[in-house]
Amino acid sequence: MPTPANPQKFAVDVHPSRIDGMGAFAAEAIPAYKKIGEIRGEPISVREARRRAKHQQRIMIVEISDKRAIDASASQDPMRYTNHSCSPNTVLRIQRGRVEFYALRNIASGEELTANYGETHHEGKLECRCGAPNCAGRI
């Protein structure tokens, strides 16, 4: 079986984050509106995703439809470390069952990549630590 193509379009490093745990950081300048990369993982049902997410602080699961989800917990893709921010520099889009990240603006090398995850499996019970001036306080 051939090795799947690398989904990364720009170099991304993983380092400790001031927001939470590990974070994804641009290893090169990324122009606005360009695809940065994606996360791959185990395809599971939404029901299984919600079961796995219960009582976990760090969740790497994305629901891609009302029936399917991707659990990226074992993924090697660096974008899985993209932390939440209420003032993000990327946007997560579901395209043909893929979880892709695009730059919302020019992103400098060394800048942490963040996305606003909106509704999450945390159901508003987890304190947000993004530090943005417009921080909602919970995710």
From TrEMBL:
UniProt xrefs under InterPro entries: Post-SET_dom, SET2_Histone-Lys_MeTrsfase, SET_dom, SET_dom_sf
Subcellular localization(s) per the UniProt record: Chromosome
Domain (SET) ranges: 8-118
Classification via Gene3D superfamilies: SET domain (2.170.270.10)
Keywords from the UniProt entry: Chromosome, Methyltransferase, S-adenosyl-L-methionine, Transferase
Domain annotation Post-SET: ranges: 124-139
SMART domains linked to this entry: SET
SUPFAM superfamilies: SET domain (SSF82199)
Protein name stated in the entry: SET domain-containing protein-lysine N-methyltransferase
Gene source species: Caldimonas mangrovi
